[in-house]
Fold this protein.
Amino acid sequence: PLHCPAEKIVDAYHRLMPDNPRCKVLNAARRGAIKARWTEAAKLTCKPFGYSSASSGIFAWEAFFAICAESPFLTGRANPQPGKPPFLADIDFLMSPLGFAKCLENKYHREAA
C-alpha cells in the first residue's frame, strides 16, 4: 500500500479551501481517517481518483479540494437553515466515509449541476 502523506493532504486542504476551518491538530484519529480515505481513493475509478503513486495521489486530492471549494454549501456560502449558521466543511467532514462519498457523488454541487 502507498504511504499516506497526511501532512501534504492537510496542506492541500488549507491551500485550496482557505476559508474553511483550519486543521490545527493532526492527531491519530485524523491521521487514521485521512489514511483510510487515501487508501480508498487510490482504488476508485471515478475522477479525480485512482492513483498508484504518492505524487499522483496528491495531485488527485488537490483536484478534489479544488472541486469542493467551488461548492457554496461546503464553503459556507449557501443559505443556511433558519436559525443555524452556514455549514462549513472541515477536514473531519471531508475525510469521513459519508462526507467523502457525498462529495464524490456531487451532493453539494446541486446549484451547479
Summary: The chain has a mean pLDDT of 93. The longest helix spans residues 28-43. The radius of gyration is 14 Å.
